[in-house]
Amino acid sequence: MDLESxxxxxxxxxxxHTREVRFTGDARSYFSIWLxxxxxxxxxxxxxxxxxxxxxxxxxxxxxxxxxxxxxxLATPQQILKGRLLALACFAxxxxxxxxxxxxxxxxxxxxxxxxxxxxxxxxxxxxRMTRYRNVQFSFKGQYKDTLINFVLLPILSVFTLYLxxxxxxxxxxxxxxxxxxxxxxxxxTHLSTKEYYLIAFVCxxxxxxxxxxxxxxxxxxxxxxxxxxxxQLIGVGILFMQFLVVIIVASAYKAMVRNHIxxxxxxxxxxxxxxxxxxxxxxxxNVTNTLAIVCSLGLAFPWAxxxxxxxxxxxxxxxxxxxxxxxxxxxxAQQSSFAEEAANVFDVDISLT
Length: 354
Prior knowledge:
Elements: E1 9-10, E2 17-20, E3 22-23, H1 27-43, H2 49-62, E4 64-66, E5 69-73, H3 77-100, H4 102-129, E6 131-133, E7 136-140, H5 144-159, H6 166-178, E8 181-183, E9 186-190, H7 194-225, H8 232-264, E10 266-268, E11 272-276, H9 280-296, H10 302-315, E12 317-321, H11 339-346
Antiparallel strand pairs: 1-2, 2-12, 3-4, 4-5, 5-6, 6-7, 7-8, 8-9, 9-10, 10-11, 11-12
Helix pairs in contact: 1-2, 1-10, 2-3, 3-4, 3-11, 4-5, 4-11, 5-6, 6-7, 7-8, 8-9, 9-10
């Protein structure tokens, strides 16, 4: 679908303007950026990765448009690099301490667990503060106590309920994140349904069970037909690959359904409302074919896959803008360090909003 050819739609009987999100990037132009980033990162033993991160985000932000206005990514490579070096130093300190001084390693691990909610909050705060649309910056105003409850305590509690509380915990996490996002001085209000999350979880569980059974049967049939039962290692690799595809399928379906629910129940009061019509089957096929293309091309198809995904997500998103959008005040925010965001990346804490 040609995103450039889409017409702007005016909402009948209302001053609200309906605008589709457009992504104007292409695989050819992004491939050169991606290739340079890879080569320079290898040549500098990872130091250039900070510049690579900024270039990637500036490309995708700069090619994402709503109502003819682009998004901006404001972080600098120096900010990212300083934070990354600090986070790596902390990680190295933990590894060395746990190896030679186990007690100190335990203390540091406990300290990390206590600091985790702060790291998540600071990461979200930095990511949003570095995002700008129409010269107005986003911000995040979550609190430590709420992060501790939603990101740490509730997921742990769900384990003791055989994960029966997990859909509710995931709903609480999404509600916490989105209800603490601001665009200038306008707060994002999100009303999510616990029932919807349990329904989505049930659908995904049935998909996982059904696909798992089919994958097991397929592996067994292939093994018998090709007389490969004696080569258990080859069959094991095939089963692992099928399980990997099952995870991609279920995760993609879950993300598509949750994304639609969040977008359709979120609004910046007096500024904008949102709509998402991302078809789960289309998103599943996209991620499966992207994964296969990346694997078969030994990674060279990554730029094509990433651009393809960005185009689909943009095409599935609609924003209903109110006239008051021009009056949003850009709240000046105190400068913060990117340490927490990079610490979250180093310690494998996913704080992305996409």
